[in-house]
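User: Sequence in, structure out. Go.
Assistant: Echoing your sequence, followed by the structure tokens.
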Amino acid sequence: MSDDQHSHHHLETLAIHAGNTADPLTGAVVPPIYQVSTYKQDGVGGLRGGYEYSRSANPTRTALETNLAALEGGRRGLAFASGLAAEDCLLRTLLSPGDHVVIPNDAYGGTFRLFAKVVARWGVEWSVADTSDPAAVRAAITPKTKVIWVETPSNPLLGITDIAAVAGIAHQAGARLVVDNTFASPYLQQPLALGADIVVHSLTKYMGGHSDVVGGALVAADATLGDELAFHQNAMGAVAGPFDSWLVLRGIKTLPVRMDRHSENAGRIAEMLTRHPRVTSVLYPGLPDHPGHETAAKQMKAFGGMISFRVAGGEQAAVEVCNRARLFTLGESLGGVESLIEHPGLMTHASVAGSALEVPADLVRLSVGIEAADDLLADLQQALG
């Protein structure tokens, strides 16, 4: 569901106002938490405002879904209980047994697990391609390809895919392009405007922004596809609850200012890491020598708050850096106001071990928060030794 009332506003305004209409009863400027399962009907089949049962629709979730559609410039937004619930609904809506999907060679471990361990058992085939190389994507397409899946920036190697180029390849093949926009957020990147068909989010990350909620989202460019996704959302039932929806709505209001600080802090940290003698490689699209820097500069407003780097001394050295950090909290997830550090090979990406998506053992991933950059720099310098 889109919010045409605010369609002419900038994203900073949409983040605060889209879907957030004042309560008609009290004038409350924040949408209420409708903690309710069912609704009194105005006669048999007479739904008041379209609500009958909160799996099908809930006013707090409607506010969030309207906001999501506006931020991504889509026709329909849908909120789910987690990012993986959103992905599961999407795949079961778009695919049938025998279909084929092109997935990236760098992606969130849970996404890979969903393809390799769940969807594959349903008879869906998949193959891996370096989506930063349009020729590799084209070569991976088969007559059965229905979906091309992209993360940009990717998790955890911060690869960059040219969304417009891959959208053209997908559509030429009769396939849909799905872009996981979790790392960038709609403030930094607008995949639908670049030709993508569907955007995926883990709302747990930058959209919520405070490490206090788990959620997922889909935003469709096409109204008909949005209706199909909504049918499956209701039929499958993994919807976002009203309180979780309210928390994400609250987080989104400060998304633009948070993303500015995340990006600013990450840029300073990336530059420091490039000069550190114990760091062998820094993966951050804001660095001029990053292979995707020019593409990222073209399709992103700034380069985000995620950095990965490789440490001299292998896996044990990388683990020690994670363990010595103090201000950077050792933990999974990302996108919160606090800075996090983790070892992808043993934590978030353990599920891709032994696959084409396996990550280097000496890799450390940072989610750079909004603390004072000087404090974060000092903590990393002591952790590196």
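User: And one key feature?
Assistant: The CA atoms of residues 315 and 362 lie 4 Å apart.
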